[in-house]
Amino acid sequence: MPDWLVGLAIAFGCLIASWGLLAILARRLPPGVLRDLAAFIPDCVTTIRRLRKDPRIPRRAKIAILIAGLWVASPIDLIPEFLPVIGPLDDIVVVALALRYAGRQVPRDILLAAWPGETKLLERLLGPAHAPQTDPPPSPARRPDPDR
């Protein structure tokens, strides 16, 4: 077997082993922000897949969600993935912006039903729920000012 093929097989084996080690370590994280952050991208991918198939979602929101899904799946990134800590930052930002946009287009209960992770994280990402617009209360009748 050629030496370059052996080297390639070893590199590929190390890559698969490191992914497995990261998956095991991510499951051992204590509950909290780190665990939520480790599960953010997989939860986003699951949410994108669920919302893409939902007929109640407007087309504009589906397009934004599809673009975010393609961005995450694309091997071309603004920040290379191999950089520690900041590598997946561009993926997280694009997905967060797409989910915020979809959150304005889609009823919140549908979005929360599609989210497989901790709902606190998604609610924090989406921001406060907006109350439905109602007519403002009528202003009290003004009496004429007697000093004028």
TrEMBL record:
<dbReference type="GO" id="GO:0012505">
    <property type="term" value="C:endomembrane system"/>
</dbReference>
<feature type="transmembrane region" description="Helical">
    <location>
        <begin position="6"/>
        <end position="26"/>
    </location>
</feature>
<dbReference type="Pfam" id="PF06803">
    <property type="entry name" value="DUF1232"/>
</dbReference>
<keyword id="KW-0472">Membrane</keyword>
<dbReference type="InterPro" id="IPR010652">
    <property type="entry name" value="DUF1232"/>
</dbReference>
<keyword id="KW-0812">Transmembrane</keyword>
<feature type="domain" description="DUF1232">
    <location>
        <begin position="61"/>
        <end position="97"/>
    </location>
</feature>
<protein>
    <recommendedName>
        <fullName>DUF1232 domain-containing protein</fullName>
    </recommendedName>
</protein>
<feature type="region of interest" description="Disordered">
    <location>
        <begin position="127"/>
        <end position="148"/>
    </location>
</feature>
<keyword id="KW-1133">Transmembrane helix</keyword>
